[in-house]
Amino acid sequence: MVPPDNQEIDQQQHNESSGKSGRFTPNQRRRGRREIGPRRGKKAFRPAAQTKFSLDPSLYINRELSWLEFNERVLEEARDTRHPLLERVKFLSIVGSNLDEFFMIRVAGIQEQVRANYVELSPDGMTPSQQLKAIHDRVSIMVSEMRDCFWKDLHPALAAAGIHLSKMNELRQEDRAKLADLFAREIFPVLTPLAFDPGHPFPYISNMSLNIAAVVSTPAGEERFARVKVPDVIPRLVQIPNGDGQPVRFVWLEDLISENLGLLFPGMNIKESYVFRVTRNADMEIQEDEAEDLINSIEESLRMRRYGSAVRVAVQNEMPARIRDILTVNLDVLPDGIYELQPPLGISHLMQLLSLPRPDLKDAPYHPAPLSLEEEGEDIFAAMRRRDILLHSPYDSFSPVVQFIEAAVNDPNVLAIKQTLYRIGKESPLIPLLIRAAENGKQVAVLVELKARFDEENNIGWAKQLEQAGIHVVYGLVGLKTHAKMALIVRKEQMESPNDPPGVRKEGLRRYVHLSTGNYNMITAQIYTDLSYFTCRKDIAEDVTEVFNYLTGYSCKDAYRKLAVAPVSLRQKLTSLIDREIAAAKAGKTAHIMMKMNSLTDVQMIEKLYDASKSGVTTDLIVRGICSLRPGIKGISDNIKVISIVGRFLEHSRVFYFENSGNPEMYLSSADLMSRNLYRRVELMFPIEDSSIIAAVRLEVLDYALSDTSRARELKSDGRYMRVSPQNGDDATDSQYAIMFARTKSVNAKRLIPRESPPPA
What we know:
The protein has 761 residues and is α/β, with parallel strands linked by helices. The protein is built from 19 helices and 29 strands.
């Protein structure tokens, strides 16, 4: 599954594929680019080609700025009064969390380029320094908008709803006394003040930590500087003891600590205190090509993540220059990495408020209708033999996926279970099932992707637990992340053979497959929209078997019957499908492309879509997040429409639809159209061949989204997103709530499990 040797990967796309720009060390930059090597061999190098883009840079939207615009759309949801109050708080918290990850990964990579004097233009023509400047300017505006959203909108609205986030000087004396007692009992013992002077080196400031810079003076009047870390083992919002039926009141933990600093520095005079927060580079490169034990290598990388270079230092806006200079010099942060903010810093901790028992301030709970893959008188496998099955989460329950694995565990005729796991959460019902399958004597093989960013530690724990149960565990491939989501069940059955007379049945093996656009995660399945496909089609099952054989062994296979597999054939397959629509348009036939994905940044795919537009192919793109394509440019992209939907659920499914001159073809995939997905990950794209399912997905996933006039925004050629509004006085249509309503109205309404489908081939 190694790409052909002459596969040219330009430098910019390779940098993008690693998850951040400039991931190479300076020596690697001088030597050339990485090449995907053998299964467990060393990575080879070859000279880097000069970066070339065939189109004018003005035809691309900067990736980083597009990502920030996505978070601007999330921030708009925090300001939207149509959402219940605590849901708006949730959206603001998400923006804060997203910005943290953006700095830890994307900005960190660009800063590495600047420090290494590595100048490479992005597709839109910006140098790394120019990108940093543009990011700083845009983020400065965004954090100002976040501050206004919190203080001018959400803060007073929370107070009006009986949820008070108070400052210490706003409290009554009796409340301050209660908090002082709580501080002495439960907080003071946890704190460790760290001095900074000739006898005490500048303390290490860990990633994502909130800190207090305290200025104290000795009895002789000598000024001293100290740092106090705000402990993350204590809730950030400290609830003030109150009587039943009284408003809920909180103070910020850092304010409570600042109020009681005198206990930490007895005999000293507390002159000043200011809050600051440090974000560090968290994208540590795993030396998997040199490590004998991948788990040990990743565990070491996780430890080193705490010590990455400082990328951003957020400081309280009242902090004087002399204190700020101490932080800037000792943290070695670039000038564009300093952000002055009005407290509270670390707005993502507002998510704590979602745990309050205030259903009146939250979305009404949505419970998908109970659903079973089994019909009366048949088991799961019989149902799959009768028809292909597709689920649309969270509108359909995730439980059938668990039911599928559980049935395999309990069925004595099942011989083997194989599954990939990328992000499965801290509590997964699948792990005990897989362990029980091994205990039942079945062959169980699991690929646990240890390199899933920010899930590494969790996945290491699961991998060790599975290994201890005697399961064959594979950790992924050198140089590639396995992002494909698939499960394979091998079952012994009585089957008809095409070489025998009709009705004659012999014992044989049949394979049952589950493929998905999303993870095997019970929690995210309740808030992410994804498509989940069950089939026992022979050709697809054989392809999945061969992909598993590649993941656990060796293979140079570069062609499959039905699947398109990255990094080998997925790009080529999509390109050929687009070319077919181009040919149809030129021949005067109906030509229409519809694509739904999370991000679109790959330069070659963007240029291919521009070619389609210039040929007259109508192209509708539903891109939730980053989109580097500019629609609506006359003669270039005037046949392309791009919308983004930010709503109650995170749009996560990937769907690719091609009109094919009136004979539509549809594919689902784990991959976005990003270079990292097409070059540096194992991804699957699989066809849907049941015409009734194709029609259902087109209606519910694509057409509903394109007709949304409530949450949809349309991307304009200048990079701005404009909210789509209903026309001619019509009511606004929210695509997500339309699907929820259809599910609630009738158990079978718009169900993506057709009641009558042609039997699998």
